[in-house]
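The passage that follows is intended for readers who have already worked through the single-chain material. We present the inputs for a multi-component assembly, then the predicted structure in tokenized form, and finally a short commentary. You are encouraged to pause after the input and sketch how you expect the pieces to fit together before reading on.
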Amino acid sequence: MGGVRTAGDLVLRMQLSHKMKINEAKKYVAEKLNVTLEELCDVVTMSEVREELGLGLGHVEPCAEANIGMEAKFRIAELLGIKINSVERFKERAGMK
Amino acid sequence: MQEKKYFTRMGDGSIVHMTEAEIREDMKAGMEDAVLRGKVEPLTDEEFEHLYNIITMPGTIVGVEPGMQIVTTSDSGSDKINTKCGIPVDRAVNAMIHERILGCDSVDIGYSDYNYKTVKGVAKREATILKHALNRTTMPLFYGAMPNLGFYTKPDGPVDNWAVLLPEGKIKESLAAQEEAVEHAVRDIVYVAEQMYDVGADGINLDTSGAAGDADFLVSLKATEAIKERFPDLNVEIGMAGEFVLGMHGKLKYDDVRLAGLYPHKQVKLAEKAGASIFGPVVNTNCNMTFPWNIARVCTFIKACTAVAEIPVHANTGMGVCGVPMCENLPADIVSRVDKALVEICKIDGL
Amino acid sequence: MSKELILKAAAESIIESDEDKALEALAQADAEGIDVVELLSEGYSAGMRELGDQFGRGEIFLPELIFSTEVMKVVTEKIEARMEGSDAPKKGVMVIGTVAGDVHDIGKGIVASLVKTNGIEVHDLGREVPAEVFVEKAIEYKADFVGSSALLTTTMTEQKKIEELLVKAGIRDKVKTLVGGAPVTKRWAEKIGADAYCEDATDAVNVILSWLND
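Having made your guess, compare it with the prediction:
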């Protein structure tokens, strides 16, 4: 689907955590992001959406808000309403839980 | 006027030109082979026509309609830039390349000696690499390797080699050796999974399951069950080695189902039962047959699998499987046709 | 009992791994004066070939194949004992192995088992066998057939090396070579100069039997 260029990583997270089939997973993520299925797979639309929400991008410009990697996954877990293992382990290591 | 011939390929990737009648004849034969072997339903007339159109569609690369794209998982993905291309890159960097340059939806970190028995000895070091990658990437990351039951036989491992015992007629001994190897392999996989869970892995990939026969598939099922019991948040993908489970043992069962001889539509039900999040079916590409023969056969098997699956199905479309030719440098014309057919006809959930 | 029924019973005895039935078919063939060579090739071996096909489709499994092999061995020995001094069917010697760098020995083992059941003397060299060893053993056992299996695109080049070394050793015209394995094709066999590409165990048996009958 294009991974962080679109929303492939988010859709895959729903397949993993809730064993959702592809159409259900895409619908779930699209609704959370308030985009259409066509937009969900579109690199231009999704680059803007991801940048606004801080969900991680395929390009890393020297911008003020770096939002790739762990910090993006914190937001993704919250947005999708799922637990992300690396986020949970990070919180433990950082003494946040 | 000479009859029009279409560009396509053999299963080994070599170019072949075929007429419409030849393509249709091969498609029919491939489909019928799958029906006979798997005892599954053939493609409908509509699906058959759609597949014919995909095979003969103009253009080198074909694709799906906007919005119909699907996700990808991989096996030994993060190591392929090193092992296949000879570019020495750290595996955490490899994962970032997959994410930010190749646009992958996920990738797995794997050791170059890609099996759980070997990884056991370096599991904590492997976990450190995964941890670094997890801190720096956004997409889901798996840890992947093969159960590879053959590595548990002498001289590489502790049990007698059943491939040697069987031709000698030592049936009982060969069955016992396989059963013993299963216990060793499950223990190793669960140990590795624990290390990966501790650093935050999104999933464990049990790749090429069933490579050494029914006992090998049993390992994946039992390991999945044990992983889900101990670490419910750790997801498991089971990817297969071949289209049917080879009966090297012949009597092994899981959930009261005999494993030997199972085809994808039955394998997936056991993967579900064991607790897997994703199932990766395989249909072998026959190098000596044409792409029309191979892809019609593939679609017949995979459609039957997705039709009954309740978990996402990610069809294996690497070298030599699911109609992709058996050659090192893959032709995009065929790979893109395989992908389109699998999405539109077989309704797969991922690749 | 008709000849047709006796041949059918012989084939079934192998498919069903039924030693008693196999021996009964042999006794009936004797009583009816049926040629035992025909009984072996059209009866028992036909059963073995059918089993090979069933194995290829995943309908039967290796231990069952081995059980049947044992029954096959019993009847073959009895028929051979009877044919001593007479014109025994032409047999051959085969060396077989998985090439260097390749550990995949399951398919090769199946080929070795099935060829053996058809009366060929088989020397299984195992897995990760260097090309030089194929040639050494072919000379040592006075082999008629050299079979090599490669499961990887990176190891199939070893099959070419075997061809070259057989030529170098001056025995290429004394042996027939068979190549197999997932990435191997008829095109590859022709390219490297192998005598035959075999898709599976049954195919290997058929190729060898056709050469023996030539």
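Commentary: Helices of chain A lie at 8-18, 22-33, 37-40, 43-53, 70-80, 85-93. The first helix of chain A runs from residue 8 to 18. How closely did your sketch match?
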